[in-house]
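Collaborator request, handled under Task 6.
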Amino acid sequence: MRILRTFAIVSLCGGFMACTTNQNPQELKEKTARATAELKVNAKAVAAGVREGWSRDKPLDLNTATREQLTALPGITDVEADKVIAGRPYDDPGELVTRRIIPKSKYDKIADQLKAKK
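Structure tokens returned to the collaborator:
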């Protein structure tokens, strides 16, 4: 809804500016294209935020999580995510520490965000 509102405001401003100044059609097209491109970027960011919000309260399953989901956890590197994936399956999230995949200090920060479901 916010995106539509923003688009409407940008469109109205663009229309208002076109009426109050003597812009040529090419300038107007370029401004509209820039505004549209910015809205696209903003829409993608909003969608990513919504996805993150939906999954924030749900623990991440170590046995099915993607590399991207694992690296989205605080402090988890690409190398560690690859090790988590290579070490599957897990019976308990604590195995990340006992198998020396990640240090206990990192595990303690993310433990409440993990589960190991078979």
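The cover message to the collaborator said: "The chain is about 65% helix and 5% strand. Helices lie at 2-20, 25-56, 67-71, 78-86, 95-98, 104-110. Please let us know whether this matches your experimental observations."
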